[in-house]
Amino acid sequence: MDSSKNDVIVHDCPPFFKVYKDGRVERYIVTQPSPAGLDPTTGVQSKDVAVAPGVRARIFTPQIRNPGQKLPLLVHYHGGGFSAGSAFDTVTQKLVTSLVTQANIIAISIDYRLAPEHLLPIAYEDSWAGLQWVATHANGQGPEPWLNENADLGRVFLSGESAGANLAHHMGVQAGATKLAGLKIIGMIIVHPFFGSKDASENENENEMYKYVCPTSTGFDHDSKLNPAADPNLKQLACDRVIVMVAEKDELRNRGEAYYETLVKNGCGGNVEFFESKGEDHCFHVFHDNDNAEALKNQMVDFIKKD
Q1: Cα–Cα distance between 80 and 110 in angstroms, integer?
Q2: 109 strand-pairing partners
Q3: What sign has the CA pseudo-torsion 22, 82, 45, 54?
Q4: Rounded to whole angstroms, how far apart are CA atoms 54 and 126?
C-alpha cells in the first residue's frame, strides 16, 4: 500500500485544523496544558471534575476567608472555533484566574468535546450537560463540595469568547426555554462572539468549515446556532442583563453588533450593554497584555460586581 496516499488532505480548515485521508486530524492551533492546583501568585485553587460521560470541567475558587461564604458563580466556555482550546490550557487558566481574583467569584470552565472528531451539535450538548451538572448543586446537594459550600447558585453568570460566546448564549436560551431549575442566571458576558453571516461569500473558508463540522446545519436563515434571530425561543433568554463585547479590527465585529441589536430589538436579556475595544483584533485579551486588555477585563469584572 502506498502510505503517501494517507498524506492526502481531504479537509483543510485554517487556522484550526486539517483532516487527512486516513482520518488523522492535525491542528494548526495547539494550546499548552496547565495543571490544576494552587496558583501561588493569586492564591486561586483549581481542580478538575467529571460532569457527564466524556465531559470534564475545571473549577476555580479564590481564597475563602469566611467558611460558608457564598460567592457568585461564573460558568465559562472557551473559544477556538469549536475545534481548538481547552478548559485545561494556559489561555483559559490565565483568563479565568484573573477574573476569579478580581471579581471574587467561583468559576467553572466546561471542557466540551471538540470538532472535527466530535461534530456539532456535540459541543452544545456537552455545554448543556455541564450547566445541568452545576444546577444539581442547588441547596448544597450536589457532588462537588466546592460548589455546595461556596457557590451562590442564585447569582450565576455565563461567559465565553468567540465560539464559547456562541455556546454561552445558547445555554442562556436553553436554560430559559426549559426552565432549568436549581440556578438563576443573572447575566451573560458575550465576548467577540462567533455567529454566522447572511452573506455566503463573506468568508468562504469559514462557511466550508462550518458545513463540515456541523453537517446537520440548515444554513444561516434557519440555523439558530448561526443566527440567533432565527431561534423561536430567543425571547426566553434566561438572564437579567447582557454585555456584548467586540473589537474594532475583528472580522466578526459587525456580527457581534448585529447580535446586540437582535437582543435589543426582541427585548431579550433585560438590560443589554455594548462595549468596543478600539484598535484591537479578535480575542486579543487572551493573547496579549496591554491597556485595552486590562480595560476589557475590568469591564467584565465591573459587570459581575454590579450584582
Answers
A1: 13
A2: 58, 76
A3: negative
A4: 8
How far CA 186 is from CA of 13, 175, 242, 265, in Å, comes to 36, 12, 9, 20
Is this prediction's pTM over 0.85?
A: yes
Name the nearest CA neighbour of 42 among 61, 57, 70, 59. Answer: 61
Distance CA 76, CA 167 (A): 9
Kindly give the confidence (pLDDT) of every residue in the chain, 307 residues in length, as a single tens digit, with 9 standing for 90 and above.
455 677 899 999 999 999 999 999 999 999 999 999 999 999 999 999 999 999 999 999 999 988 889 999 999 999 999 999 999 999 999 999 999 999 999 999 999 999 999 999 999 999 999 999 999 999 999 999 999 999 999 999 999 999 999 999 999 999 999 999 999 999 999 999 999 998 866 778 899 999 999 999 999 999 999 999 999 999 999 999 999 999 999 999 999 999 999 999 999 988 999 999 999 999 999 999 999 999 999 999 999 999 6
Sign of the dihedral through C-alpha 160, 166, 172, 174: negative
- The answer to whether the CB of 141 falls within 8 A of the CB of 57 is no
Cα pseudo-dihedral 90, 257, 264, 240, rounded to 10: 10
Q: Are 267 and 234 in contact (CB under 8 A)?
A: no
Joined grid coordinates for residue 244: 456584548
What lies within 8 Å, CB to CB, of 8 at 6+ separation is: 20, 21
Any idea which residues carry the catalytic annotation?
A: 162, 250, 282
